């Protein structure tokens, strides 16, 4: 087809972008179009880049053409990944996208695309280190055009500038971002280190975070996690992130960790380490001096910032870090004073190891000095990262553009420099202190000279919103956890206390079943006299204390399952048919302290009481034997003795009675006469008998 075109067109088909198209075998249509009139925003990096049609994602114009010639180092190959491909297909002879192997007239076609909403999931691979991409449009009504990314084949995990966080489901993943994603469309929400909303393009967020450079691209390591209710906005590396609402997930980036502050804001850097080319000084109408010196250039510091006496590009602000450090970024702000809304909108960064020989910072493989985009207002903080980082002792900021007057505050980001790498670094000198800055004493005009503010993309200033929602999101769960812990602790303590009280009160008569209590009491009432003469005595003088009289032996017993009255002294059996009646009060129970004094009604018998024969007494009476008789030499000294009495009223409650139960007297029987003395007051409770002794029913 080219041979049928005019010679002028045939010779300049690549350089002047004149195009001849073979519509039919005998018909060739040639169009002379301006060079590159169909090229959109593109960045062609040394190892990666991104391309798009003119006006993307809007409809591309009619009758346009553009070609991109891409070359990478010899011995490497290229591959391409499409983010979007939408070309109207009514006439694919004049509406298409082609990719060629090689550059110039000897190139060979790899692939051609034409159609709306095409999906190209696979990588398109070249056979050499040079590729030509050609886009052409005729007359059309719709179509967004295209957007693609490329890199060398060493990065098979290449993604495009339009891939968002929601497109990746892995908890952690690594990908390769191409150069040029700053020119792509898309909006991000969030900031480092809190994370970015999952709707944000990943590579654009990586530029904002400072983990890759827009001019070079690079590998990123991403971590997905649960979303937060609120995302802050900020301006960093010429990318503006906006405030964002709640999302299901967020992502952030793994970094080297060398992003700490280097001491200007905290005061580690002393005032003597800050220098400036000039200082602005003036006095107000009452003669009060005002000095805008370099010591005020600390980020978030109170008072006046640094401002230069002159407004030209020879002004600078310098910091001496005292030793070489790795510097990965810088954060700047304007005057932060409402009445003096001064700020620097663009600047260069110079660095040195000796304070005399200075280097202007450039990006990797760049041939021009890097101009950093500064502030867009006097108050908002703006961050710029150095990729690759600076390794130096001295850092100097040289403003190139400003608003009204040069004034700024700043902080450096970075970490300690590893001395193991210093063998290739220049020797550090200790220069003399620079001369004092010049001083201007003119009264400040309210409207000074203003340089042209650069055209900065994506600089929409997000509103300054206090992160109350995020704070409440963290605080409320913490308070709920603390309150829940207190409630559980209180309930457990109350429950433990109740169990303890229940355990300690297990022997309280009020919790006993009366039948079970009486049954357990019977085991301590022997029934045979053949075992020897014994005396059961009770006393209320001392509870739970055993006293042994004379040479009498003490009867030891194992504790019963429930607490029983303590018994000591000489005990005798009450007889085979003897019973001992517990008290029944007006309200039957065992809370009455005098359990052994009250009589029972004649028509009520306890479940375990054995009725006496009609000829006998109505109730069994405990047999009392004075221990004094044993002390006088009775033969019963050989028997174990205990002395006890009933609790409550003591011996006085054991009044003399007849068996007839006459009124006016106690219903208890009178102790049978044995010719022995009545009990003394020096008595104790009866000790429970050992469970090894079998009571006689």
UniProtKB/TrEMBL annotation:
GO terms for biological process: wound healing. Pfam families: CUB, F5_F8_type_C, LCCL. Residues 258-415 form the F5/8 type C domain. The keyword Phosphoprotein applies. It is found in: Membrane. It is a single-pass type I membrane protein. Residues 425-448, 642-697 are annotated as: Disordered. Residues 155-251 form the LCCL domain. GO terms for cellular component: plasma membrane. Gene3D superfamilies: Galactose-binding domain-like, LCCL-like domain, Spermadhesin, CUB domain. Its main location: membrane. Residues 39-153 form the CUB domain. The chain crosses the membrane at residues 469-494. Disulfide bonds join 39-66. Residues 655-679, 687-697 have a biased composition (Polar residues). Keywords: Disulfide bond, Membrane, Phosphoprotein, Transmembrane, Transmembrane helix. PROSITE patterns: CUB, FA58C_1, FA58C_3, LCCL. This is Discoidin, CUB and LCCL domain containing 2. It comes from Oncorhynchus kisutch.
């Amino acid at each position: 087809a080219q041979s049928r075109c005019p010679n002028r067109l045939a010779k300049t088909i690549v350089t002047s972008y004149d195009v001849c198209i073979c519509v039919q075998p005998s018909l060739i249509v040639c169009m002379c179009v301006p060079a590159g009139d169909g090229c959109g925003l593109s960045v062609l990096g040394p190892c990666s880049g991104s391309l798009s049609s003119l006006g993307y994602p809007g409809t591309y114009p009619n009758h346009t053409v553009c070609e991109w010639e891409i070359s990478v180092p010899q011995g490497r190959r290229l591959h391409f990944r499409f983010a979007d491909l939408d070309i109207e297909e009514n006439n694919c002879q004049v509406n298409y996208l082609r990719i060629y192997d090689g550059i110039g007239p000897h190139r060979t076609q790899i692939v051609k695309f034409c159609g709306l909403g095409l999906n190209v999931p696979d990588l398109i691979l070249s056979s050499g280190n040079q590729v030509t991409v050609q886009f052409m449009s005729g007359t059309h009504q719709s179509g967004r055009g295209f957007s693609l990314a490329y890199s060398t084949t060493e990065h098979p995990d290449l993604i495009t500038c339009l891939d968002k966080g929601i497109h990746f489901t892995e908890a952690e993943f690594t990908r390769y971002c191409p150069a040029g994603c700053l020119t792509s469309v898309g909006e991000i929400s969030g900031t480092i280190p809190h994370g970015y909303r999952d709707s944000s393009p990943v590579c654009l967020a990586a530029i904002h975070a400072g983990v890759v450079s827009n001019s070079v691209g690079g590998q990123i390591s991403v971590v997905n996690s649960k979303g937060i209710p609120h995302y802050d906005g900020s301006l960093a590396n010429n990318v503006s992130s906006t405030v964002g609402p709640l999302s299901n997930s967020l992502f952030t980036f793994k970094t080297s960790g060398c992003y700490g502050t280097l001491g200007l804001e905290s005061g580690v850097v002393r005032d003597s380490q800050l220098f400036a080319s000039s200082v602005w000084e003036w006095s107000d109408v009452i003669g009060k001096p005002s000095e805008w010196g370099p010591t005020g250039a600390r980020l978030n510091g109170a008072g006046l910032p640094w401002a230069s006496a002159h407004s030209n590009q020879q002004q600078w602000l310098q910091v001496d870090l005292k030793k070489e450090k790795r510097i990965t970024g810088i954060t700047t702000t304007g005057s932060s004073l409402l009445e003096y809304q001064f700020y620097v909108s663009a600047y260069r960064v110079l660095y040195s190891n000796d304070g005399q020989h200075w280097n202007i910072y450039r990006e990797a493989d760049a041939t021009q000095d890097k101009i950093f985009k500064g502030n867009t207002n006097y108050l908002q903080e703006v961050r710029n990262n150095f990729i690759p980082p600076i390794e130096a002792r001295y850092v100097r900021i040289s403003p190139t553009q400003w608003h009204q007057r040069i004034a700024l505050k700043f902080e450096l980001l970075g970490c300690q420099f590893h001395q193991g790498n210093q063998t290739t670094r220049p020797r550090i000198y200790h220069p003399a202190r620079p001369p004092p800055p010049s001083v201007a004493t003119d009264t400040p005009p309210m409207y000074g000279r203003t340089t042209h503010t650069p055209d900065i993309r994506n600089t929409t200033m997000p509103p300054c919103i206090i992160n109350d929602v995020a704070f409440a999101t963290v605080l409320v769960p913490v308070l709920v956890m603390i309150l829940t812990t207190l409630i559980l602790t209180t309930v457990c303590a109350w429950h433990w206390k109740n169990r303890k009280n229940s355990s300690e009160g297990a022997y309280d008569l009020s919790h006993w079943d009366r039948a079970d209590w009486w049954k357990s009491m019977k085991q301590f009432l022997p029934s045979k006299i053949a075992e020897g003469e014994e005396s059961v005595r009770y006393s209320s003088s001392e509870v739970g204390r055993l006293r042994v009289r004379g040479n009498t032996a003490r009867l030891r017993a194992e504790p019963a399952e429930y607490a029983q009255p303590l018994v000591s002294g000489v005990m005798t059996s009450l007889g085979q048919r003897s019973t001992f009646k517990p008290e029944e009060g007006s309200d039957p129970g065992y809370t009455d302290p005098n359990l052994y004094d009250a009589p029972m009604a004649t028509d009520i018998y306890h479940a375990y009481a054995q009725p006496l024969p009609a000829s006998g007494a109505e109730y069994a009476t405990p047999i009392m034997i004075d221990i004094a008789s044993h002390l006088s030499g009775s033969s019963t000294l050989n028997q174990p003795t205990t002395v006890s009495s009933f609790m409550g009223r003591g011996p006085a409650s054991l009044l003399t009675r007849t068996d007839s139960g006459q009124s006016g007297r106690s219903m208890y029987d009178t102790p049978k006469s044995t010719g022995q003395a009545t009990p003394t007051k020096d008595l104790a409770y009866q000790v429970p008998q050992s469970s090894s002794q079998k009571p006689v029913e």
